[in-house]
Specification:
The structure holds 2 protein chains of 2 kinds. Chain A is an alpha/beta fold. Helix content of chain A is 30%, strand content 23%. By secondary structure, chain B is mostly helical. Chain B has a domain of 57 residues. The longest helix of chain B is centred in the last third of the chain and has 43 residues. The N and C termini of chain B lie close together (10 Å).
Chain lengths: 266, 596
C-alpha cells in the first residue's frame, strides 16, 4: 500500500539498540532488507529476535538508532503515522493473538480496523463489504466454514491460519512473523508454514520471520541473519551458509542452553 | 534425596518478613477484638435472657398484617426499581473508571491514580450518607436513592471491572494494535468481548447487594418501602411491619435465585465448547452469524436488561434530567456540611467512632470463626450432598434477611445499643463470608488432596493440609474485606438503634446540625480509608507476597512440571522419608526453599 516500497529498501536499521533495564536486547544492529526478500532470523531464546521484529512496527521503541520501515521513520513517527505504517505491515505472533471470545470472522475483520472510518469504525459493527472480504480470506486459509465459531474453540494450527487471514485483511506489503509455528505440533507446523509461504509468494510480500527450526529456515529463506546476545553474528544468502555455521550461532549463546538443542523457547 | 544424611539445622520454615507481619497482625487483631468486646459490653448471655423479649415481640407480630397489600407491593417494587436504576447508573459510570484504573488500559499513570481515588472515595462513603445529602438537596423521592446507590456502587464496580480488565491476556491486544487499529477500536475488539461475562456477573451481584441496601434508604426519605417500614416501626405497628418484612424477604430471595440462575447461565455460555457451531452450511452471502442458542440468549439478556431499566424509569417516574439540572442545588447542599464541626460533639464523636470500630471488629472476628466451619459444610467438594444442599439453602435464607431487619430483631431482644448491632452484623457476616469461603474451597485443586490421601492421611488431615492451607490467603483476604464492609454497616445500623457513630449521625441529621454531620461523614470516610489502606497493605505484602513466594520454585524447575505434579512428588517424598522439612509442609507451599 506504500508507494515508497518500490525504491530503496523496505527495512533499514542503523545502530538499532534496545535496552530493558540492565539487559541489552539489541546491540547496534544494522540491517537492510530489499523488497521481495524472504529473510529468516535465527538465534537462541533471548537473543533479541522478538524485540527486533517488534521494533519494526513500533510495538517496541528503540533506545537508540534509527528504524526506517516502508519509508517511515518508526522511532520518530507520531501515533497516526505509526498506525498508517502498521496497516501495511502484517504481524504473525507465536501465540496467534486471537481474541478468544469473539468469532473467527470478527477476528479476521479486526485486520481491517486500521482503514475503517467513523461511523462503522469496527467498534459496533463492520460493513458488509469488509465481511465479504474477510470470508474470502478465510476461504483462502481453508476455514470459511468456521467463520461464526468462537475462535477459542479452534486448534492451534487453525488459530494461526485465522491469524494469517487477519493479516491478509490488512493487505500488507511487509510480513513480520515471530516464531509462527513454534507453538504447533510438527504436523500442523508444516501445513501452516507451507500455507504462509504460498501466500507470501502469491502476494509478493517481503517477509522477515524468526524461526527456530534451522532446516525449515534453510529450505525457505533467501537470506539468513543470526542473532546472539542482540548482535548480528551471521548474515548471508542461504545457499552460501553451511549448517555448521548456523549451528555456531547457538553455541555459547548462553551457558544454560545445551549447545546442540537450539529449539528451547520458554 | 540426601536430606536424611545432612545435619538438620531447622525444622520450621525460615523466618520471613511475611511471617513476622502476619504474627503482628494476628496479635493486634486479637487485642483489638478483646478491647472491642469490653468496650461494647458484648456477651452471649443477653441473647438468652432476651429470648423472652423475642417471644413476646413475635407474639405481637403474628399474624402479620397487610393494611394495604397492593400499596405495600407497589412500594416494594419501587424499591426494586430504585436498586435497578442505581445499579445501571453505577455500571455506566464505572466503565470509564474501571478502564482508567486498570494498569493495562489506563491512558496515563495520573489518570490511574485519579480513577483509583474515585473508587476508594465512592466505596468509603456509605450509600446512606449519599442518600442523606441527596434527600436534603432534592427532597424526598426516588431520585436521591438512585443517585446514592449509583455513586456508592461505582466504588465496588469500578474496582472489580478494573480487576477483570487486568486479567485480559496481553497477546490479542498486541496483535490488534499491530494491525494499525486505534486505541478505542482495540479496546472494543480485544478487551470488551473478553470482559463482558465478568462485567455482567459482577453487576448482577451488585444489584443483589443494592436491593438489600435500598430498603434502608427509605429510612432517610429516599423512596421505596423502607419509608413505610420506618413509619410502622415508629408507631409500634409491628404486625404491619412484619407484613412488609415478609414482602421484602420474598423479593430478595426471588432476586437472589434469578440472578444466580442468570450468572450460572452466563458462565455456562462462556465455556467455548457450548458455542461450537458445527456444520454451518456456508453460503457466500451469509455475512451474519447464525442464531445459535448462545447468541439468542445473549440478545435476550441485553434486551431484558434494557426493558427492566425502561420499566423502572416509568414506574418510579425518575427524571434523569433533574439530576443534571439540580447540580447547583446539590452543590449548595454539600456546602452546608462544610466546614465540618468536630468540636461541638467532640467526645461523642471519638467514642462513637471507637464503638463502631469495636462493633465491626468483634462482629468480623466472631462471624469469621463461625463462618469457617459453616463454609466448609457448604462446599460441594467437602460435604456430602445433603449437608451441602441444606447448608447452602440456610445461607441463602440468612443472606436474604437485610441487616437492617436483623438489627431490629436484636434490638427487640437485647435492647437498643451496640450489642444488638453486633449480633446483627455477626449474622450478616456469617451469611456472606460462609458463601465466599465455600466458593473458594470449591475451587481448590483436587490433585493435592488425592496426593495427601494417597499418603495415608485421615479426612481431617486431608482437609487441613490440602484444603484449608491453600485457601488460607483468600480466607484472610475475605476476612479483612468483611471488616471494611462491617464498619460501614455498623454506621448504618446506628440508625435503628444499633448505637455507635450511626446513632450520632441520625441525631445530627434530625436536628439539622449539618456541620456536625459533615464531621461524622469525614470521620467515617477516614476510618474506612485507614482500614482500606491496612487491608491493601496486608493483601499486597502478606497474601500476594506469600503466593508469589510459593510460585517461585516452580519457575526454577527446568521441566515444565505442573504445580500439582511437583506437590505430589514432594508430599509423597516427605511422608515416605522422615524429612522433618516435610512435616509442616502443606501442599503447594514453598517447597523449593525448605528442601535445599
Amino acid at each position: 500500500m506504500q508507494a515508497v516500497a518500490s525504491d530503496g529498501p523496505v527495512v533499514r536499521l542503523d545502530g538499532l539498540t534496545r535496552v530493558f533495564g540492565q539487559h541489552t536486547a539489541l546491540d547496534q544492529v544494522d540491517l537492510e532488507v530489499p523488497a521481495g526478500q524472504m529473510l529468516a532470523i535465527l538465534g537462541a531464546s533471548g537473543s533479541g529476535k522478538s524485540t527486533l521484529l517488534r521494533t519494526l512496527n513500533g510495538l517496541v521503541a528503540p533506545t537508540s538508532g534509527t528504524v526506517r520501515v516502508l519509508g517511515t521513520d518508526v522511532s520518530k513517527a507520531r501515533s497516526g503515522e505509526l498506525r498508517a505504517l502498521r496497516r501495511g505491515v502484517g504481524f504473525i505472533f507465536q501465540q496467534f493473538g486471537l481474541v478468544g471470545r469473539i468469532s473467527v470472522l470478527e477476528n479476521v475483520l479486526s485486520g481491517a480496523l486500521g482503514r475503517l472510518r467513523f461511523p462503522r469504525a469496527g467498534v459496533i459493527s463492520y460493513p458488509r463489504s469488509a465481511r465479504l472480504e474477510a470470508l474470502e480470506h478465510l476461504e483462502r486459509v481453508g476455514l470459511a466454514e468456521r467463520a461464526f465459531q468462537r475462535s477459542d474453540t479452534l486448534s492451534g494450527g487453525q488459530q494461526q491460519r485465522v491469524a494469517i487471514a487477519r493479516t491478509l485483511m490488512q493487505r500488507p506489503t511487509l510480513l513480520l512473523a515471530d516464531e509462527p509455528v513454534a507453538s504447533l505440533d510438527p504436523e500442523s507446523a508444516a501445513s501452516v508454514m507451507s500455507l504462509l509461504l504460498k501466500i507470501c509468494q502469491e502476494e509478493h510480500l517481503t517477509v522477515i520471520a524468526s524461526l527456530h527450526q534451522v532446516e525449515l529456515a534453510r529450505g525457505w529463506a533467501d537470506r539468513v541473519v543470526g542473532l546472539r546476545d542482540g548482535q548480528v553474528v551471521l548474515d548471508g544468502r542461504t545457499q552460501d551458509i553451511t549448517a555448521e555455521r548456523i549451528m555456531a550461532i547457538y553455541r555459547g549463546a548462553s551457558p544454560a542452553a545445551p549447545a546442540d538443542v537450539p529449539a528451547v523457547r520458554m | 534425596m540426601t536430606v536424611s544424611k545432612a545435619p538438620l539445622v531447622r525444622t520450621l520454615p525460615p523466618w520471613t518478613r511475611q511471617r513476622g507481619g502476619m504474627i503482628v497482625l494476628v496479635v493486634a487483631g486479637v487485642a483489638g477484638v478483646v478491647a472491642g468486646w469490653h468496650d461494647i459490653g458484648m456477651g452471649v448471655l443477653p441473647l438468652f435472657t432476651g429470648i423472652g423479649n423475642i417471644v413476646r415481640f413475635v407474639g405481637q407480630t403474628v399474624p402479620p398484617q397487610f393494611p394495604s397489600f397492593a400499596h405495600t407491593v407497589n412500594l416494594a417494587l419501587i424499591t426494586v426499581c430504585m436498586a435497578i436504576l442505581g445499579t445501571a447508573l453505577a455500571a455506566v459510570l464505572a466503565i470509564p473508571v474501571g478502564f482508567m484504573a486498570a494498569r493495562n488500559t489506563t491512558v496515563h499513570p495520573a489518570a490511574r491514580w485519579v480513577a483509583r481515588g474515585i473508587i476508594v472515595a465512592c466505596r468509603s462513603v456509605p450509600d446512606l450518607v449519599f442518600a442523606i445529602v441527596f434527600v436534603e438537596a432534592l427532597g424526598i423521592g426516588v431520585l436521591p436513592g438512585v443517585l446514592a446507590i449509583g455513586l456508592h456502587s461505582v466504588g465496588m464496580l469500578g474496582k472489580l471491572y478494573a480487576e477483570a480488565i487486568e486479567q485480559v491476556p496481553e497477546q490479542p491486544r498486541e496483535a490488534v494494535a499491530a494491525t494499525g487499529a486505534r486505541r478505542l477500536q482495540n479496546l472494543a475488539t480485544s478487551v470488551l468481548p473478553q470482559i463482558l461475562p465478568s462485567f455482567s456477573s459482577v453487576t448482577l451481584y451488585r444489584l443483589d447487594i443494592n436491593l438489600r441496601g435500598s430498603v434502608i434508604l427509605g429510612y432517610v426519605g429516599a423512596g421505596g418501602i423502607g419509608f413505610l417500614l420506618n413509619q410502622y416501626m415508629d408507631t409500634l405497628q409491628f404486625r404491619s411491619a412484619v407484613g412488609i418484612v415478609i414482602v421484602i424477604f420474598a423479593l430478595i430471595v426471588a432476586m437472589e435465585v434469578a440472578s444466580a440462575a442468570i450468572r450460572r447461565s452466563l458462565i455456562g455460555a462462556d465455556k467455548p465448547a457450548k458455542s461450537v457451531v458445527t456444520a454451518v452450511t456456508f453460503d457466500r452471502r451469509t455475512v451474519r452469524p447464525p442464531w445459535t442458542r448462545t447468541r439468542i440468549e445473549g440478545h435476550a439478556y441485553t434486551a431484558g436488561a434494557l426493558v427492566l431499566i425502561g420499566v423502572s424509569f416509568w414506574a418510579t417516574e425518575v427524571n434523569p434530567v433533574q439530576a443534571i439540572t439540580s447540580l447547583r442545588q446539590i452543590w449548595d447542599t454539600v456546602r452546608l456540611y462544610y466546614p465540618p464541626d468536630f468540636s461541638t460533639a467532640r467526645d461523642s464523636l471519638v467514642s462513637g467512632t471507637l464503638q463502631s470500630l469495636s462493633v465491626a471488629l468483634v462482629a468480623t472476628a466472631v462471624g469469621f470463626l463461625l463462618a469457617v466451619p459453616i463454609g466448609l459444610l457448604a462446599a460441594r467438594n467437602i460435604s456430602d450432598r445433603w449437608t451441602y444442599r441444606s447448608t447452602r439453602g440456610f445461607l441463602v435464607v440468612v443472606r436474604a434477611v437485610p441487616e437492617l431487619i436483623l438489627a431490629i430483631v436484636f434490638v427487640v431482644a437485647v435492647g437498643l445499643g451496640l450489642v444488638a448491632g453486633t449480633f446483627a452484623l455477626i449474622v450478616g457476616t456469617v451469611g456472606f463470608l460462609s458463601k465466599l469461603i465455600a466458593d473458594g474451597v470449591e475451587e481448590v485443586s483436587p490433585m493435592p488432596r488425592e496426593a495427601v490421601r494417597s499418603a495415608g492421611a485421615t479426612r481431617m488431615q486431608e482437609t487441613a493440609t490440602a484444603v484449608i492451607q491453600p485457601s488460607a490467603p483468600a480466607l484472610i483476604g475475605n476476612g479483612l474485606y468483611m471488616l471494611d464492609v462491617n464498619f460501614r454497616s455498623a454506621t448504618i445500623l446506628g440508625l435503628v438503634g444499633g448505637g455507635g457513630i450511626g446513632f450520632l449521625l441520625q441525631q445530627s441529621v434530625q436536628i439539622l446540625a449539618y456541620r456536625t454531620t459533615g464531621a461524622i461523614i469525614i470521620l467515617t470516610f477516614a476510618v474506612v480509608l485507614v482500614i482500606e489502606i491496612i487491608t491493601n497493605w496486608v493483601r499486597k505484602h502478606l497474601i500476594l507476597g506469600a503466593q508469589h513466594r510459593r510460585c517461585r520454585p516452580q519457575t526454577v524447575v527446568a521441566a515444565p512440571l505442573p504445580g500439582a505434579a511437583t506437590t505430589v512428588s514432594r508430599t509423597l517424598g516427605s511422608a515416605g522419608g522422615r524429612s522433618p522439612a516435610g512435616r509442616l509442609l502443606p501442599a503447594g507451599r514453598d517447597v523449593g526453599g525448605d528442601i535445599s
